[in-house]
Amino acid sequence: MQQYEVIVIGAGPAGYVCAIRCAQLGFKVACIDKWVNARGKPALGGTCLNVGCIPSKALLDSTHHVHFLSEQAGRHGLKISGLEVDIPTMQKRKDKVVQTLTRGVASLLKKNKVDVYAGTARFLGEQRIHVGQLDGPSEELQGEHIVIASGSKPSTLPDIEVDNDRVLDSTGALNLQEAPERLGIIGAGVIGLEMGSVWNRLGSEVIILEALAEFLPAADRTVSKEAFKILGKQGLDIRMNCLVQGVQVTSDKVAVSYSLNGAEQLLEVSKLVIAVGRMADTTDLDLEAVGIKTNQKGFIEIDARWQTSVENVYAIGDVVGGAMLAHKGSEEGMALAEQLASQHAHINYEAIPWVVYTWPEIAWVGRTEQQCKSDGIPCRTGEFPFRALGRAHAMDDTGGLFKIVCEQDSDRILGAHILGPSASELICEAVVAMESELCAEDLARMVHAHPSLSEGMHEAALAADQRAIHF
Ligand code: FAD
Ligand code: AMP
Fold first, then answer.
1. Which end of the chain is least crowded, N or C, by CB within 10 Å?
2. Quick check: bond before 360 cis, omega within 30?
3. Measuring CA to CA, which residue among 273, 254, 261, 271 is closest to residue 190?
4. Is the pTM higher than 0.90?
5. pLDDT profile of the chain (471 residues), mean per 10
6. Mutate which of 155, 193, 210, 357 to test ligand 2's pocket (most atoms within 8 Å of Cβ)?
7. Atom 6 of ligand 2, residue of closest alpha carbon
8. How remote is the CA of residue 195 from the centroid of ligand 2, in Å?
9. How close is the Cα of 322 to the center of ligand 1, in Å?
């Protein structure tokens, strides 16, 4: 039986980062992953690289170009005639990006001398793992420390079967080879909005049914209201208060029955995407065999140091819930590795950035104004619109706004919210500011390059003290 100091189950962004950091710190490490790609080959990188962050962004980037060429190029004096969109080629490019990056993870693990096992891990004992290898005999591994980073899978709705032909999950929605005439999406969360944007830009009529009354409830209300308007103008028909009850699939359509404020409604679409969230993937682990506890929603329970109910067995990433984001999992992976090496390990869960990659992008970190109010924290806010930025005009991209939330008296930044072009990049300044416990005044005194979109953050910080210059 092979002996390891650390065995990591899962090679998604939580697991492979943990494995590499453990190896850098001198541990003997194994990393096990069961993922098999569409060509039947083992692939590393988990959901994020194979069917999540990366392929979705590849399609969002490609279709953003389509939108530019068809809607905006004329204003730049570019006359485009006969624009043809070849979706299979777009999909091949996406697949190539995924292949490059998953191979990159394999070479990083190799470079760091992590032993990779392609197969399914199952607990035999607190320190013993069975690996059902994909192409080889099964193995038994012994580990001083076991890290579960088995990630998540799409949630489903009762009585609705995903066949990835007419009724799709996020993976099916990423792989369509032509734009459906009418695409229904259940769930106006991050995945629903991103997939809706991709297929809307490629010509589908997109209708999104959302059970909640409030659009993007985790975002600041100023931003979510404005985003709702902008996305609506782009053609996303987002219907709130719509609770889906059932789906009927026929050879040529999908009929979705839902209730809107108590009244029965019917929507007929060519294809339907179920985007109602994700749940922990613990299916093959046999956690019960060793008594690892999960909560009511199926996420593995951990303490503040990522330890499960069993000593020396840890869990990180999507499988423990919280912010189900790649970067949150990776940070946990690094922090846990350092903790195992008796180093100081800390993650500031208050300063994790969130991004929705629509265009304009929606990004935030920390508290919203509404959360401050409901938690009784006196706060001030500063807002600044992209349309008051020279660079945004030069780019012909003036929709959206910056908003900073700071503590009333101390001026400390509690949150930042951006709706606008490249919000995913711009939010980083606010993360640094929050991690450094800066005040709005500090950002207001820092020199920001002109003309740049980052000036919007500067002006929002000035606006928090009612002294914005350009608005
Ligand atoms: P995963 O990436 O799910 O990896 C878990 C790995 O464990 C998998 O490879 C799986 O094969 C393996 N595994 C599970 N069980 C076993 C077992 N018993 N034996 C062996 N191996 C096992 N997040 C962002 O931050 N930004 C984004 O832009 C973003 N976009 C997304 C878009 C889509 C369409 C989707 C679906 C998700 C997106 N996410 C995004 C979420 C992100 O993908 C996840 O938060 C992230 O992948 C979680 O990382 P993880 O390592 O915890 O788990
Ligand atoms: P996220 O958690 O960001 O992936 O978003 C999933 C979205 O799906 C949430 O906004 C949920 O409110 C929504 N949702 C969940 N179940 C249903 C349902 N039966 N009908 C419509 N929307 C739903």
1. N
2. yes
3. 273
4. yes
5. 97 98 98 96 97 98 97 96 96 98 98 98 97 93 98 95 97 98 98 98 98 97 98 98 95 95 94 98 97 98 98 98 98 98 94 98 98 98 98 98 98 98 98 98 98 98 98 95
6. 210
7. 276
8. 14
9. 14
